[in-house]
Amino acid sequence: MISFVKTLKTLLLLEDMNFLLTNRIPRALATRLMGRFSRVEHPLIVRVSIFLWGLFADLKLEEARQKHFKSVHDCFVRELLPGARPICGDPDILISPCDGIVGEFGMIKDQQLFQAKGFPYSLKDLLLTESLVKTWQNGCFLTIRITSSMYHRFHAPEDGRLQRVRYISGDTWNVNPIALKRVESLFCKNERAILELSIGPKSTPIIMIPVAAILVAGIRIHGINATLNCKSPNGLTLESDRCFNRGDEMGWFEHGSTIIMITPPEFEFNPHLAIGQRLRIGEPIMQLPIASY
């Protein structure tokens, strides 16, 4: 068994094999089947599934609020123990909304962002709304990838209000670095939700975009009484007036994926931010412009 696991891990580390196994399959069907399987409430199936999951991923459940899970899905969307993620108290700092790994970050130039080095994509293709594109064409962007074993809930990066959610249906490509280097405009192809927020005393606008992926489609947002997934109408727009304090839980992926943040150009990235860096909720990611904020 151990030898088989090591062999399979080795194969998954090979880029061609990883891409083949996680993308060149019926992605939508695999995602639906995994969604159904993950909700099976059978103690033996749950224990074995979580055990196997832990063999192939860095799954750590010590910080989970609950110690026993009724299904694999229950484990995927687990909550954390109170105080497990200290929140930076500096009012001039924008915090990470999720646990994850920094993918790419920088300024948006000529309506262009990057999903990986040398792989640009269009802000217009990402947002699909002319007014939003015009507003954010010179902003800043930050991509945070959430791996399968990580905590999958996302939180408010600052005190503020969720104003609007727009759901965009799409594919479920894997969002790991191997796929990001091979699939053009991947984030623009995948299912996603555009969250328009206003933060701080001057209601400064920012955007958070949860992007779904293979086996992990489905996004839940507090204040929106529906799961946003392939059954939702494409372009569905939902108004909201839900207020959040910095660090409050805003929602979760049904399993996990990626968060793209877009902010005004005056926001400055934390000088210690680096591609490949692991982030935790509550850690500093950007300095807020005091004069205009």
Give the helix/strand layout.
Elements lengths: L1 H12 L1 H9 L3 H12 L4 H14 L15 H5 L16 E3 L4 E8 L4 E5 L2 E4 H5 L2 H7 L3 E6 L7 E3 L4 E9 L8 H4 L5 H4 L2 E8 L4 E8 L7 E3 L15 E8 L4 E5 L4 E6 L4 E2 L8 E2 L4 E4 L6
Task: Report on the architecture of this protein.
By secondary structure, the protein is an alpha+beta fold. The protein folds into two domains: 2-76, no CATH class; 93-287, no CATH class. It has helices at 2-13, 15-23, 27-38, 43-56, 72-76, 123-127, 130-136, 177-180, 186-189, and strands at 93-95, 100-107, 112-116, 119-122, 140-145, 153-155, 160-168, 192-199, 204-211, 219-221, 237-244, 249-253, 258-263, 268-269, 278-279, 284-287. It has an eight-stranded antiparallel beta sheet, with no helix packed on it. Strands 1-16-14 form a three-stranded antiparallel beta sheet, with no helix packed on it. Strands 6-12-10 form a three-stranded antiparallel beta sheet, with no helix packed on it. A hairpin with a 4-residue loop joins strand 8 (192-199) and strand 9 (204-211). The longest helix is centred in the first third of the chain and has 14 residues, at 43-56. The model has no long low-confidence stretch (mean pLDDT 86).
| Subunit organisation of the chains | single chain
Q: Kindly provide the radius of gyration, computed on alpha-carbon positions and rounded to a whole number of angstroms.
A: 19 Å
| Strands, count | 16
Could you give the order of strands across the largest sheet? 11-7-8-9-13-5-2-15
Let me know the largest β-sheet: 8 strands, antiparallel
Report strand %. 25-35%
Q: How many domains, in number, for the residues?
A: 2
Termini separation comes to 56 Å
Order of helix and strand elements from N to C terminus: HHHHHEEEEHHEEEHHEEEEEEEEE
**Rough shape?**
globular
Low-pLDDT stretches: none
Helix content: 10-25%
Helix run count: 9
Global structural class? alpha+beta
